[in-house]
Amino acid sequence: MNHRIRIKSKLGLAALIAGIAAVAAGVAYATIPDTNGVIHTCYSKSNGTWRPIDSPTQKCKPVETALNFNRTGPQGIQGPKGADGTNGTNGTNGTNGTNGTNGTNGEAGPTGPAGPSDAYYAADFGRPDVPSDGQHDTVLTLTLADAGNYAVTGTGTWVAQGGGVSNGFCGLAWSSGTEGNSFPVSTQGTDVQVPFAAIGTFAVPANATIRMFCTTTDAAVSIAHPSLMAIKVATLQTTLH
Asked: Mean pLDDT over residues 96-107, rounded?
């Protein structure tokens, strides 16, 4: 509901404002305006009084009209956007971090495949003699530079000197004295030349010497064109019967 108050002269309006100020000073302890910024007053048309009150603690009298005022005016329109500020200067570069610690060594990888085989060969194109003394006389030698496992083959031709019966055998051994398989040889009558082959397997250190030997207790013999072949292998698997 709207209420209109007619003030007949400027002098009367001034007196009214002064009266409100005086009354407000007398109740300075009251909450005027309230927490929402509203000033609550009561106007009496019959006797022309106009007084502020501490609402809601105080109320207008039945013969008075409540008149409320907002001390804060309406919100103004939004102002124009301000100009953009200038860009700030770049910051200084930070210091370099320290190097991280070295990682631990990885686990060893699996064993690689075996490399290519090595072969060693020796030959004598003469006729080494083997006396009839029953000793293991060396006919030919072969030095193996690398340590490892070797399959060795020795060949030659058993030649009886002067014909007749000549019994004996040839075999393989290496410098430690370990012998391989021996090959028995026998000549009788006019059959005075017999080819033979001796085969052995050896696990040797570096620079081991393989030798082919022959022995006889009958007539002396010669070994024609003896040869040795040694092939390095990964593993040795020997079966004897």
From this structure: 89
SS3 content of the chain, % helix, strand, coil (to 5): 5, 40, 50
Phi then psi dihedrals of residue 136, to 5 deg: -85, 85
Strand runs labelled E in the chain: 38-44, 49-53, 65-70, 119-123, 129-130, 137-144, 148-160, 166-174, 179-187, 193-204, 208-216, 221-233
Distance CA 54, CA 40 (A): 7
Burial class (CB in 10 A: 0-12, 13-18, 19+), 216: buried
Token pair of 121 as six digits: 């060969």
Q: Kindly tell me if the per-residue pLDDT of 38 is higher than 90.
A: no
Which residues on neighbouring strands pair with residue 144, listed in sequence order? 208
Number of other CB atoms surrounding residue 232 within 10 Å = 19
Handedness of CA 53, 56, 57, 58 (dihedral sign): positive
Query: Rounded to whole angstroms, what are the CA distances from 239 to 81, 90, 181, 201, 230?
Result: 102, 84, 12, 11, 19
Q: Which pair of tokens denotes residue 170? A: 């040839």
Q: Are 53 and 59 in contact (CB under 8 A)?
A: yes
pLDDT over 90 percentage in the chain:
24
With a CB cutoff of 8 Å and minimum separation 6, the contacts of 45 are 5, 65
Token code pair at residue 223: 């070994």
